[in-house]
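Lab notebook, entry 870. We have the chain sequence and a SMILES string for zinc ion, and the next step in the workflow is to get a structural model of the bound complex before anyone spends time on docking refinements. Request logged below.

Task: model protein plus zinc ion, output structure tokens.
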Amino acid sequence: FGDTCPLVSLSCFQTPQRIPHDEAVRQEFRPTKVGDSFGPTWWTCWFKVELSIPREWAGKEVHLLWESDGEGMVWRDAQPVQVRGKNTVSCALISGDFCFHFSHFYSLTVYVEVACNGLFGAGKGSLIAPPDPDKKFTLNKAELVVFNRDVHELLVDFEILVDMAKCLSLLTLRSFQALYVANQMVNLLDVTDSCTFPAVRHLASSIFSQKNGESQHTIHAMGHCHIDSAWLWPYEESIRKCARSWVTVIRLMEKNPEFTFVCSQAQQFEWVRNWYPGLYAQIQDYAKEGRFIPVGGTWVEMDGNLPSGESMVRQFLQGQRFFQQQFGKLCSEVRMMKTMNNNRDKGRVNHSAALFGFGDGGGGPTQKMLDRLKRMSDTNGLPRVQMSTPDRFFSMLEKEKTQLFTWIGELFLELHNGTYTTQTQIKKGNRECERILHDAEVLSSFALTQKNTFQYPSIKLQHLWRLLLLNQFHDVLPGSCIQLVVEDTAESLLVLNTLPWERTEVVSRTGAKTLGAIADGSVTMENGVIAAHLDSMGRVMSLRLVHSGRESVQDGHCANQFVIFDDVPLYWDAWDVMDYHLETRKPITTLLKPLEIVLAGGLRGSVKFSLQISERSVITQEVILDAMCPYLRFLTQVDWNEAHRFLKVEFPLQVRSMNATYEIQLGHLQRPTHWNTSWDWARFEVWSHKWMDLSEHGFGVALLNDCKYGASVHKNVMSLSLLRAPKSPDATADIGPHEFTYAVMPHRGSFQEAGVIHYAYNLNFPLHTVPAVSAQCPAWSAFSVHSPAVVLETVKQAEDRLDGLVVRLYESHGSTVVTWLQTSLPVKEAISCDLLERPDLSSHLPLEEHGLKLSFTPFQVRSVLLILRQ
Ligand SMILES: [Zn+2]
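Result returned:
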């Protein structure tokens, strides 16, 4: 910077709320000065800045130099205009041109909105530590300065040469050439004499202008800014982060006609649309030009593992429909957050994509990054760099696609295994919300077909879906979630089954009697299907199939064994479980209340016991066996007050297999049960949905759950991960009471033949009982699917047709099948459609006597649009 000049006046006003500009400027501002502090954390300080540019600076590039803690946004004429960049101290408020041509703006007033948090929140002492609520923020500098553009250009030149010297392989001559020129530049430069600058720049350009050979790789550069929709800051701050980052992008677009920016997450566009309509209009203009490019097609960048299959579908349905409505176009690429840092295609294809810009907490590209890219467009020894778009990049790749490697199977990230378990209430809430929305849609759809005055609650459901989709964002944070209160009523009951198969289950606990204690404290439970023998600590000593007598539990071991581990990751507390935690395994064997019988039998038998985990934590469990049910259910309550400990439950089984099977979204996959290679070993903690299974030929055991996601199977021991106690970024994570259910199901044959998938759905979607309106309600079934391999996952109203339902089915066994979908609903027409509900008009499905004939390949997902008779 050159000359400086003080501001005319500076005043401020503080508020604990995040308020709109119009409201802020009406408040009473008090004088303030450089050096003053403001805060505390999460407050906002609005500064009113009056400035006047000296006449003698006319024609010069004048910047407002603003240096304060906290993230800032500059407002002029009620519009956000500029942001304080991450690593720059200057805010290019007024360009030289601007000043020269518009001298009547010689004096002006701007507002600076400073959030009392940094780009990464306000962690106390370290990045991921819980926020410090009492942080103070200081204004360090506020003045007008003359910006030395030629010094800036020299610095950019020089830094690239230094980077070339450092980063290019020492085996190439090129790094030495760069170092030699950089050295010459230093020798030639006299910093006090700007007349030496042109010759110095000329030296640098002698390197930049040396062109590449034909073999050089091409990099498709696209600006990007990763903004976590919530992470170390709340959702509300993310809204402002979007605005701050995207304002910067718009300013850069004005100055750099070649600059392109890719931007994901429909939710963030929706936020800016609602809160910053002026900015949003500018974004839409640049989107029309194809430079501000919506990508990804999803509502948020969701976690890739834990959302259900239908949630994954809805991420795209809500996201793509938003992009279509707002920008007239669907996104043609998917963006998943998991990356594999291993470019096996190098040498085979000649194009790569590079997204650049500060991220996570927002920020995005800077002018300096663009200046560097321009210099590196075609410089010998560096890859060719061009501003590009996803379309351009992928069409280049498509030309070379026969050369590309293909990855089959799971993209397993060897990191952050703890996130399958941390914040179990959010996970439980997620599973519950998915179930509630499923049931609400199924029942609303049926109501629609039964009564034409019924208003399908589509707006309400869309709102709730979007809320759930937002909370599936890829950083685990406490999020609000709807809850269903199940009405338990007595006498006349109507039983509702929202799953597409017949079920025989116990829905109430009437007629129970309690028996006295048993001599050695153990108890046997049997229902004609399975027989379990439990010791006084609730451990399953034996679990047999009654018919064959086949034992499930490994000799000399006991199942339903709670174990606890020390859980101290190297850094990422809430995220990571390290392999070394396994060395600290301790079985929990301190009995608080021995096993006692709660319900003696009839339709339901159950026993109860309590264990002491530590002085501060207790497990209470009710083990339940229902009539005709093939699984033993464990209704578990834990009062959890631990630090850096990991609770699991183990089932050592009499089953030998190289692989275990785990449910994933709309299917399942197998993972090894051994640790032969580093890749096998890395799977010491994996994710799974409603069930996992360990089977040998003719027999197996499945472990079902109603809200857990972390699991592992090593050798013959199945473990379900129950609770963790990390302290960062939330010091209170998982502390307090918990309730969850899991179940063990021994079975003959394969898990497919035994119906494990159906039983896992049953455990997750309990039958609803509601008071019946009349004494006699005839049995009624809306849908049935003939093949047990095909699951009818979803029934909902069509997005674009009020007289239509969309049903979604998938093949769950990994088999090729042809099946019938039968319905008692008044369907007049059936058309295949895709996940975005776009009908395939060439695929009208004939309505036959047995219903609709549908064929499936392994794991195929099919959606069908059913048009109803009015
Ligand atoms: Zn992120």
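Notes for the group: The longest helix spans residues 424-450. Worth checking against the assay data. Residues 216-296+331-408 form one domain.
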